[in-house]
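Page 37, continued from 36.
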């Protein structure tokens, strides 16, 4: 049975807790993946200015386990955090993959790209006795990649490294390459968003993207509109302190300006999420984070808060 895109979106975009990517290995999807990913499409994962939290999030994927992703879905050719190789052996994989799999590999970036002083503030190794900067590697590898993917807000929009005063001029993958990029923002992004987006690329090509380059299936709904505390907002019942089981708008929740399916998907094995833990959304998936979200615990301007329907 061939899996259709409609079926895929229904399964991966499911709002049932734990039912999204946990459905990945039902027989139909497993067979579809084996057909689409035969030979395990090569993936290069570069790390720039950031905290490596996006890699940690991916490693914590529940359904499927990270071993299944690496062994059954993709062929990870380069990842500075988890690969065994080092030195020239590691960096040689970049040139080898570019030549051997021209037009077939997926380039993933985690972290922002520093541009100041020709990118010297972020080097990823040496080549021919010289520093290989992230900027140089990104520009070279992007030319022959089948798809470009930004994982995390830093790679997608600049994120925390780009926060004022931005001394090393951090920029996103799309800004640096000028190409179409699949953005998977979040600080960090949910592992389902990463795996689900990659699988969509393998099976059907790029998913439908919003104006900020994000997959609509994961970032198409407002946090505020889907918040379990929305009824408190509608009734004007606002929390006076963090952890109050009421609407957190008055305490700086940025839900009205943030788009992601966190309220339905939940985190850490589908157990909980920010607002469920008694603190407001900080809009970490949005362009301009963290500057446009700060200060985190100050109420949004009135013009950004939706009108209550009484």
């Amino acid at each position: 049975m061939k899996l259709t895109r409609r079926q895929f979106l229904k399964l991966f975009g499911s709002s049932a807790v734990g039912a999204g990517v946990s459905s990945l290995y039902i027989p139909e999807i497993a067979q579809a993946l084996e057909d689409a990913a035969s030979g395990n499409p090569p993936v290069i994962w570069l790390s720039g200015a950031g905290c490596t939290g996006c890699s940690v999030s991916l490693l914590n994927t529940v359904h499927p386990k990270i071993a299944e992703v690496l062994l059954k879905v993709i062929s990870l050719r380069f990842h500075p955090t988890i690969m065994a190789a080092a030195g020239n052996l590691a960096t040689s994989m970049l040139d080898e993959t570019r030549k051997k799999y021209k037009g077939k590999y997926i380039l993933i970036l985690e972290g922002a790209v520093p541009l100041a002083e020709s990118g010297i503030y972020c080097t990823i190794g040496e080549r021919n006795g010289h520093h290989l900067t992230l900027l140089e590697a990104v520009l070279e590898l992007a030319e022959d990649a089948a798809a470009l993917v930004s994982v995390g807000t830093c790679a997608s929009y600049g994120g925390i490294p780009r926060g004022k005063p931005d001394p090393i001029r951090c920029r996103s993958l799309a800004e640096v390459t000028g190409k179409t990029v699949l953005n998977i923002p979040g600080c960090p992004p949910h592992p389902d968003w990463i795996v689900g987006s990659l699988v969509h690329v393998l099976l059907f090509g790029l998913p439908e993207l919003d104006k900020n380059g994000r997959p609509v299936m994961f970032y198409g709904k407002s946090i505020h509109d889907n918040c379990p505390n929305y009824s408190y907002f509608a009734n004007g019942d606002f929390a006076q302190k963090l952890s109050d089981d009421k609407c957190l708008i008055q305490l700086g929740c940025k839900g009205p300006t943030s788009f992601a399916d966190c309220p339905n998907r939940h985190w850490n094995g589908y157990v909980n999420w920010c607002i469920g833990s008694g603190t407001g959304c900080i809009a970490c998936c949005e362009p301009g984070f963290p500057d446009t979200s700060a200060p985190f615990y100050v109420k949004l301007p009135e013009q950004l808060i939706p009108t209550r329907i009484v």
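Confidence is low (pLDDT under 50) at residues 15-25. Flag for discussion at group meeting. The radius of gyration is 20 Å.
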